[in-house]
Amino acid sequence: MPDFVDEAALHVKAGDGGHGCASIHREKFKPLGGPDGGNGGRGGDVVLEVDPQIATLLEYQRRPHRRAGNGTPGKGGNRNGANGDDLVLPVPDGTVVTGADGEVIADLVGAGTRLVLADGGAGGLGNAALASPKRKAPGFALKGEEGLAVDVRLEIKTIADVGLVGFPSAGKSSLIAALSAAKPKIADYPFTTLIPNLGVVDSGEVQYVVADVPGLIPGASQGRGLGMNFLRHIERCSTLVHVLDCMTATYDPDRDPAADLDALEDELAAYGELMEVDLSDRPRLVVLNKIDVPDARDLAEIVRPMLEERGLRVLEVSAASREGLRELAFAMGEEVARARADRPEPEPTRVVLRPRELKDSSFEVVALGENTFRVRGTKPERWVRQTDFSNEEAVGYLGERLDRLGIEEALAKAGATAGAEVYIGTEEDSVVFDWAPGVDGDEAPIGPRGTDSRLG
Fold it and tell me: pLDDT by residue (tens digit) across 144-201?
């Protein structure tokens, strides 16, 4: 398995909230001192955080399942449970987080940027918190909620100032090795580079990062060769350098540097249109490589004026003899310095939060059949999850809450009659009740049936 992994599936589960405690304070001469059950602790969140010291997603490919800590239950004596530990997962700078539906959740750029990927479940209230003038000593407590489970895909888009673009074996790896301290794999066969290589280059007062990414072939934007594995790594580069192989073109009649340049530009344009990324405004430099070979030098001298007529800045270099490398380093440095000067002020470190819907009081009643209905809504579904259906008092409390929310009235308007089957929740996760309409102010719209519909 390679050390560099730029894609990984990640399955995370936030911590579950601890259950509340139902307890009555007792001491000598005071046998019924009132409710003193504490609340359950909140489950831990799952957080992604950019760490500049991390350069690969290898760890998440090896261990794709991660879970935060659970909250502990409340205890008697008004002792609340401890909160579960958050799980902070370090990711490389430039990590894109995509949901199961393919929608981008966040683009994590900048050291310390955080994304709360999965919220921990809320702890259940103890009976001390549920006490009221009407219910002075509740004999029940609320259950803790489950933490959110999320499946995402992580993908690195390399952050570099300059991207070297070229066909396989064009000499990109040799150039980055000659320009910097990077030591990429170099061999005399195509697709030697299977992963992006980064090198730091100094050109006077400007220091910048150059990315040597896998070789490009026609059709890469449709997935040929390494396809997207190449193209996405140039999205963040402020300057693109086309590396053209003049030596191969001297003995291959189907290749010439100008045609190679056109093919590269066609693929960049196709990728930009497909991914809705505009690469046309990035400054370009053209490098005619391998001029240490006499025939390649002759070809470079012929091709250079043709390319300069297009308004391109062209440099002739050789990674083997190091000819022209100083000029290339300073030319790239000039473009990087210009791009940095035009760049807006960097944003401060961000914390990306996924909004919660716990305060949403809306719900809907849907008729499923004859005297059968389903109630959907954030609050009623949440309340059902918190209820201990083995405790009749807890079920009665749930009925009161649902009545105050207006569900009894909504069921009546939808045509429900006494004994109607009422499902609360989604088709995959719902509980069924027998509806008993309130009479003369009696707040008991939901009967104590309380069965999990998944169990039949």
Answer: 999 999 999 998 887 778 988 888 878 888 888 888 865 544 434 344 444 567 778 8
Q: Which residues contact 224 (CB under 8 A, 6 or more apart)?
A: 217, 218
DSSP 24: B
* pTM, rounded to two decimals: 0.71
CA–CA dist 133, 295 (Å, integer): 96
The owner of tokens 């100083």 is: 326
| Burial of 38: CB neighbours in 10 Å, binned 0-12, 13-18, 19+ | buried
b/e burial code for range 131-154 (CB count within 10 A of at least 16 → b):
beeebeebebbbbbbbbbebebeb
306 three-class SS: helix
Q: Determine whether 100 is exposed, middle or buried from the number of CB atoms within 10 Å of its CB (0-12, 13-18, 19+).
A: exposed
Give me the sign of the Cα torsion angle 176, 214, 281, 113. Answer: negative
What is the identity of the amino acid at 49? E
Angstrom distances, CA of residue 412 to CA of 374, 377, 388: 13, 17, 26
Q: Could you give the CA distance from residue 326 to residue 2 in angstroms, rounded to a whole number? A: 33
Q: What residue spans of 343-419 are helical by DSSP H?
A: 378-386, 392-405, 407-413
Amino acid (one-letter) located at 341: A
Pull the structure tokens for residue 85: 């530990």
pLDDT in tens, 409-455: 898 888 888 888 999 977 777 888 888 876 444 444 555 555 554 43
C-alpha span between 146 and 44 (Å, rounded): 11
Which residues does residue 29 pair with via DSSP β-bridges, in sequence order?
none
